[in-house]
Amino acid sequence: xxxxxxxLRQVWVGLRLFAIMTLGLGIVYPLAITAIxxxxxxxxxxxxxxxxxxxxxxxxxxxxxxxxxxxxALPQWFQSRPSAAGDGYDGSASSxxxxxxxxxxxxxxxxxxxAAIAASDGVDPASIPPDALTASGSGLDADISPEYAREQxxxxxxxxxxxxxxxxxxxxxxxxxRDAGFIGDPTVNVLQLNLALAALSAGP
Amino acid sequence: MGTVWLTVAQLGALIIAxxxxxxxxxxxxxxxxxxxxNWKVERGLYKVIGVDPDSDQTWQRYLRSVLIFSVIGVVFLxxxxxxQEFLPYALGxxxxxxxxxxNTAISFVTNTNWQSYSPEVTLGYSVQLIGLTVQNFVSAxxxxxxxxxxxxxxxxxxxxxxxxxxxxxxxxxxxxxLPLAFVTAIVLIVGGVIQNFNxxxxxxxxxxxxxxxxxxxxxxxxxxxxxxxxxxxxFNANSAHPFEDxxxxxxxxxxxxxxxxxxxxxxxxxxxVGDNRQGYAIVGAMATIWVASSALMxxxxxxxxxxxxxxxxGAMEGIETRFGTVLSSLFASSTTLTSTGAVNxxxxxxxxxxxxxxxxxxxxxEVAPGGTGSGLYGILVIAIIAVFVAGLxxxxxxxxxxKKIGTREIKLASLYILATPALVLIGTSLSFAIPAVRDSVVxxxxxxxxxxxxxxxxxxxxxxxxxxxxxxxxxxxxxPWFNTALGAVMLLGRYIPMVxxxxxxxxxxxxxxVPATAGTLPTHRVxxxxxxxxxxxxxxxxxxxxxxxxxxxxxxxx
Lengths: 204, 558
What we know:
Chain A is mainly α. Chain A has helices spanning about 1-40, 40-45, 105-120, 145-150, 155-160, 165-175, 190-200, and strands at about 50, 55-60, 145, 175, 185-190.
């Protein structure tokens, strides 16, 4: 009987502590962090959004598709990586493909992408960098490798009647090195590059 | 910069940061759990909940408190998911289905954070905050509390008690996790992690398309997700998602966060048993395995093994450009060697040997450095086995820190190292042995076929039993079989070891201390570090080699 009473008492202690923890950790803590974030760093806290002409056109952290309504790549824009998030870069469905290293399906996708890029960009298939052929883990990768950006210069320049040198110079100005020189990999942010590109020429 | 140099630089930065934190954080935690002084806010809290902070509990009562608090957590978390539509900020999402609610409730209470669901389309902000964020804190604090109880078992003499669970839990949250999470969350926001209540926002892109951008109170959850080695993502893509892990330096910082408490706890241990060298020996064993595993992972991921990987010219499927091979490999090693299970790249798409190594890391029992608390008590059990093996070799009664390792201690330690493998192997076998289940597993759940499909199932049970939470995420785990079986495995994989550890602690505390003699095995030297690592590798390798040969080994060496 005394053990049972002791147990019941413990349950009562547990319930009260749980309620306090839920209040403090589940409500007060996140609201305090939200308040600080919104006051001290509202840009980041709200998603590092980019506005163009008064309306939001995206986030510098989230990648986008630069395709027509049918999902066909538009040659005048630098292309993002393939994406497995929804129908591509769906911000409500982040996901990788989760296909394995020996997956026939993945092998087929890579082969198809390689052929498509070689045809559209007029390059040697063997020279296409891996990030151009593979989907990222989030499906929302905002970046491509500098190699993939450089590989697209000729196509973009031709589609916009710009000189390759001009476009190439723009690309190089958007190459971001590794963080602190040694963390992660070098990148080019596709949306920011394309916005600068649009400013350079209104397109065909 | 070459891969080797990058690995050395990034790993080196982590080692320096962790080394700098080791003494101050370890000492602070030791102080937290030994001081008799209570903070004012704590005194008020004890008064409200009706606990005398000076009253110690026997191991049985300590255990009962752990279990009671955990049951309350499971029931509450299950309940709010089922009632989601009535909560604010539900984002129009329906109640979570029964078996999924069951699985998710257990998953977060057990510090596993396995996610059978896609958060964006399943959970609103209320459940994320008052459900998941809370469990991220308390499940981590419970892990540390149990580890501390075991350390007290070594430190005390002729004692029937191990401390007070309610006090340990409260101090873990109030003095350690909450202050660290608070500062971390702000750093994460500055780094680009979002923190808002905006919901989904539709925007028009420059090509005239539309895109939906998610919002959410992410940073506050992300901080404790990493610090508490929880790993449950706010978004489906977890730390691969740019709003959870926006830049390379934030990702390296996240690796640091998941390692810092587990790697500092050996200092706490050394301090509490009155011999800091004992802490160095334990952290030495942990660090050796962690560095070796991290280097092997980079090597595996830099290879072009696999037909698809070779065709792409690099293992970039499932990898973010900003992180690249090295940072993703380091993240994968640390997340599976701790009980975190967060991912910044998709393990399912890793090379055969890389994905296999992630599994091996978990199969080592997550002790290098392991989860918050669970890593320390896990490796102390291995150390006890190591002492015992050494004792057998020289024919002396084994002792560890002045405590005799007798029949009862060895029985408990043996059961501990058998419990998790049994859950992994039985769970995986049943998935293929029961005809109806097999149809569902092969027909619905496995995303890949053949060897890799088998690996997906093996990975799931390994992750659940070790309370890791990472996945070969192609597996469709939101089925009645996986939700139920993995739920049960997570529960048993968390609490069976805890029961055994607390029983062990009780048994050690009751003993006196035998003085060290010339025949006592010194447990602070390199010799013992090697012995502990050897014991760990031997125990795990023998248990898991056959099943690894069926999946990742066969695929990686094909």
